[in-house]
Amino acid sequence: MTRGSDGEKRSRPHQPHPPSRSNGPAMRIVVPLQGVVQGRGGLVLGSLLPCALFYFLQLYLKRHRSPKNDPSASASASASIIPRTLSRGQLSPRAQPPLSARAAALARPDDDDSLYYAGLRRCAADPYHPTRNPDGVIQLGLAENQLSLDLVQEWLVKNAKEALLGEDKEEGLNIRGLATYQPFDGSIDLKMAVAGFMGQVMRGSVSFNPSQIVLTSGATPAIEILSFCLADTGNAFLVPSPYYPGWDRDIKWRSRVELVPVPCRSTDNFSFSIAALERAYTQAKKRGLKVRAVLISNPSNPVGNLVNKETLYGLLEFVTEKNIHLISDEIFAGSTHGKTKFVSVAEVLDAEALDKSRVHIIYGLSKDLSLPGFRVGVIYSYNENVLNAASKLARFSSVSAPTQRLLVSMLSDSMFISEYLETNRERLQRMYRLFVDALKQLGIECAGSSGGFYCWVDMSKFIQSYSEKGEQKLWDKLLTIAKVNVTPGSSCHCIEPGWFRLCFTTSTEKDIPVVIQRIRKVTESHRMSH
Amino acid sequence: MNCKQLLLSKKAACNAHGEDSSYFLGWQEYEKNPYHPITNPHGIIQMGLAENQLSFDLIESWLARNPDSTAFKSEGVSVFRELALFQDYHGLPAFKHAMAEFMEELRGNKVAFDPRKLVLTAGSTSANEILIFCLGEPGDAFLVPTPYYPGFDRDLKWRTGAEIIPIHCSSSNGFRITKPALEEAYHQAQQQKLRVKGVLVTNPSNPLGTTLAHRELETLIDFIVAKGIHLISDEIYSGTNFDSPGFISVAEAITERGEEVADRVHIVYSLSKDLGLPGFRVGAIHSQNEAVVSTATKMSSFGLISSQTQYFLSLLLSDKEFTANYIAENKKRLRERQKRLTEALRTIGISCLESNAGLFCWVDMRHLLKTKTPEGEMELWKRIVHDVGLNISPGSSCHCNEPGWFRVCFANMSEETLDISMERLKSFVLSGDGRGKIGRGPRRLIKWVRAISAFDRRSER
C-alpha cells in the first residue's frame, strides 16, 4: 500500500510528512513543532496540530485497514494463509472472522521455518527403501527406535488378546472396565506398572512412587502441562543448548513460556556449566524476563551425553538458591549404550535431604519401549500442588484405556522388560559403534555420547562459510544431493555452526554403507572444490 | 530450614478451575458411598454421570466375531510395527475415513464429511479446548446457551483464558435459543469489554436432551454471520437422537449457505456417548476452514489418539453392518429407558422437559422447592443426595437461571437400579417432609457441604 508523495499531498493534505521534506504544507507542521522543541512560539499549533493529525491518521488507517488482518500476526503470515480471502473481502462487506494470533501465526501449510520439520516432510514424501525405493531419502532425522520392535512385537503376538480382553474367562468378553471413564491422569494400575518400569530402566538405583505420577498422551503434552503449571505467560525457562527442536513448539506455543538458550560448547563436549547458567540467569533478568525453571534433557538430546552427579548437585544448588524449578527430561534414560552409568536426578534427590518440591521429571514410553504411537508420557513430580494441577490438566491429554490395559500387562512382565532393556542396549551400542566408525572413514567426528538414538557430528570442515547460512547450505546439499535427512544444529539452537544430529536407529546395518556412500558425494565434492 | 515459598503459575495456584461447584461435590459424596445392588444397597445411586452403558453387548459380540482386531493383525498380517511408530498428527487414514463415514451415517447421510477436514483429538474435551485456542485469545468471549454442561467452565476457559457469556434460555419456550437472548448476551459481553469470538452450542443439548429446531439453527447462523463470528456445534450426542423430531446437524443447516458461512462453522464430535467408549479418548473436529484445520491438527500433538485405538476403531466403524445395527438398536434402548424414567416420574407428579435425545432428562422439580430460589434448589438437592441417595445434577451447576430443574441420567445403570431410584424418589416425594429412606442427621449435611475439596476423578458429562 505504498503511495507517492503526490497522492498524499492531493488526497490528504494534512497527512504527516517526514520532516526532511521541504514543501509548504510540511513546513507548516514542522515549524510549530520545532518551535515547541526549541522553546519558542507555536505552542498551540505545536500541540493541537499533532494531536489532530494523529486522530485523523487513526481514522484513516481504521477505515482502510483490511478487515481480516489479525493485529498481532505478521504481514507475511496473513498474506499467505488463504490468498483467496482477499477477493472474498471485496465481495461481502464482512470478511472471514479472524482466528487467534496463535492460529494465524501457524496456520500456513508449511509452517515452521525450522529445518527440522522441513526435513521430516521431505523425507516423508520420498522415503528410502532398500528394494522398493533405493533412491529415496534416507531418514536420519527422526529419533525413533526401530532396532528392537521385533521384541515387543513378539510379546504382543503372544499376549495382546489376553491382556486386553481375557480378564474374566467365565463372564466372557467384558469391555465395561475398558470402555467407561477412567481417571484422567491414568489408572492406578498403569501408574504402578510405569513406576516399576522406570525403576527397572534406572537399573534399580532408585524406586519411583506411583502416586507421584501423572500420565499423559505422550511426553509432548507432559512438558506442555508442566509449563502451564510452573510458569505464567512471558516467563522463561533456561535451557542448555543445543536442545530438542520440538520444545520450541511444545513450550512456547500455547503456554507462551520463553526459552532462553544457555549455549554449550564443543570444547566441553557440550556439557553445561553452572557458571553458564548463572550468566544466562543474570542476562535474562536484565532483559526483564522472569526465569521460573531450568530445563535439561538427560541423556541429552541431541548430543547424547549424560549429566554427571557433581553437575546434578550443582544444578540442584543453583535452582534452590534462585528459588526456581528443575525439569529433567529423562525420556532416553533406558537407551544408554555407553560405559558411563546414567544417574537420574531422582537418585541424587533420594540420597540427600534436599528440598524436592522443585524437581520434576519428564518421561515416556516412546523412546525406551519404542512405542511412540501408543502415546504414553509421564510427569513425575515431588510437588503435591503440581501433581494436583497436572492431574486435572491431564483431562486434555489422557492415555487411551485399551492402551493402558495392554501396557499394564506388558510392563508388569518384569522378566520380559529386563530382557528387552538389555537386548535393546546391546543393539543400540552395536549400531552406534558401527555408525561412528563408518563416519570416521569420511573424516567426520562425533561428540562423546553415551545415550540416545543419535550421533552428534562435526561437519564444520565441509561448510563453505562458518555460519548458520553455511550450515544450512550443507544441510540442503545433504538432503538434495546425498538424499539424507539430518537435523542441523541451528534447529537445535547450537551456537557453533556445522554440527548435525544423525539418528542411527531407523536404519539397519545394511543401510550404513549406503548412508556413507551418499554422504561421501557431498564431502568429496566439497574436498574437490577446496 | 528456611524454605522459601516455591512459586507455581497463577493457573496452577488458583482454584478457578470450575471444580468447586456442587456438581463435583455430589460426585465426591457418591464416591464415598456408591450404590451396589448386593454389597451396598443403601448407597448413593449415580444419576449424574452421562455415560451410555446400554449397548456394550453389541460391541462385545462384534469383538467375539473379530478377535484379530485387538491382535494388531490385518488379514493375518501383523500391522504392529507401523502402529507402534505411528504418531502422525494427521491421524490414521483408515480411521479418519471410517470416522467421517460414521458421522455421515449418524446424520442419515444427508451431509458429507471430508476426512481431510477432520482433526482427531483425545476426546471432545481436548477438541473443544483446541478450537477455543484456535479462535480466541485470553479475554475473548464465547456465548453459550444455558443451561450448559458444567465442564465447559473448565474446558473452554482454564488454559485458554477465554470467557463464557451465557445466553439465557427459559422454560417459557422450552429453553429454546431466541434472537433477543443472543443479542442480550452479545451486549453483556460488550458491557464487560469482551470481544465475542463465537457461539458454542451443544446439539443435541446437554443437559436438556433436546435437538435444535430448524428455526433455532437459522437464527444462530444468521446471528454469527451478522456479527462476523464463529459457531462451534458440539454434536457429541448426535447418535442419541432416539425420537422425533430428528436431529438436524449444523452441517445440514449450512448446506444452503455460501462458503463464508462454512468457514466459520466447526463441529465437535466424540465416540464417548454414542458408542459408550469414553475411556478410549476419541474426539474429532470437523471444519471447512483450512486455517482452523491446519492449526488444530498441529495442536492435536498435545492430545493424539493412541494408534492402537485408532486401528481397532477403524475396523469396528468400517463394518457397516455393525454400525447400522448398532445405531438403530442403541437408539431403541435409549428410547425405552427414557420412557421408563419419564413414566415413573410422571406417577410421582414430576414432569420432564420433552426430550428426544441424550442420556438424561431435564426434570422439573420446581414444585418441590421450599423457596423458588437458588438456595431452595440447593436445599432440595442436598436432601435428594443425602436423604434419598440419588446423585443428580442441580440446574444451577449448569447455569440455569430458573431454580428447580435437575438433570437425571438414565443410561449408566441397569433397569433394576433405575426402578429402585424411582422408588426412593417416590417415597421421598410422597412422604412430603423429606424424611426419605436413608436417615442422616442434618449436622452431617452441613459438615459435608462445608468441605471444599475439588475432588475429581471422572468426567461428568
UniProtKB/TrEMBL annotation, chain A:
Residues 1-26, 86-106 are annotated as: Disordered. Keywords: Aminotransferase, Pyridoxal phosphate, Transferase. Belongs to the class-I pyridoxal-phosphate-dependent aminotransferase family. The keyword Transferase applies. GO terms for molecular function: pyridoxal phosphate binding; transaminase activity. InterPro entries: Aminotransferase_I/II_large, Ethylene_sulfur-biosynth, NHTrfase_class1_PyrdxlP-BS, PyrdxlP-dep_Trfase, PyrdxlP-dep_Trfase_major, PyrdxlP-dep_Trfase_small. Residues 1-10 have a biased composition (Basic and acidic residues). Residues 92-106 have a biased composition (Low complexity). Pfam families: Aminotran_1_2. This is Probable aminotransferase ACS12 isoform X2. PANTHER family: AMINOTRANSFERASE ACS10-RELATED, BIFUNCTIONAL ASPARTATE AMINOTRANSFERASE AND GLUTAMATE/ASPARTATE-PREPHENATE AMINOTRANSFERASE-RELATED. Its cofactor is pyridoxal 5'-phosphate. The keyword Transferase applies. Residues 138-519 form the Aminotransferase class I/classII large domain. It comes from Ananas comosus. One of its GO terms (biological process) is amino acid metabolic process.
From TrEMBL, chain B:
Belongs to the class-I pyridoxal-phosphate-dependent aminotransferase family. Transmembrane segments: none annotated. Residues 45-425 form the Aminotransferase class I/classII large domain. Keywords: Ethylene biosynthesis, Fruit ripening, Lyase, Pyridoxal phosphate, S-adenosyl-L-methionine. GO terms for biological process: ethylene biosynthetic process; fruit ripening. PANTHER family: 1-AMINOCYCLOPROPANE-1-CARBOXYLATE SYNTHASE 9, BIFUNCTIONAL ASPARTATE AMINOTRANSFERASE AND GLUTAMATE/ASPARTATE-PREPHENATE AMINOTRANSFERASE-RELATED. Its cofactor is pyridoxal 5'-phosphate. It is an enzyme of class 4 (lyase). InterPro entries: Aminotransferase_I/II_large, Ethylene_sulfur-biosynth, NHTrfase_class1_PyrdxlP-BS, PyrdxlP-dep_Trfase, PyrdxlP-dep_Trfase_major, PyrdxlP-dep_Trfase_small. It catalyses: S-adenosyl-L-methionine = 1-aminocyclopropane-1-carboxylate + S-methyl-5'-thioadenosine + H(+). Its EC number is 4.4.1.14. GO terms for molecular function: 1-aminocyclopropane-1-carboxylate synthase activity; pyridoxal phosphate binding; transaminase activity. This is 1-aminocyclopropane-1-carboxylate synthase. It comes from the Eukaryota.
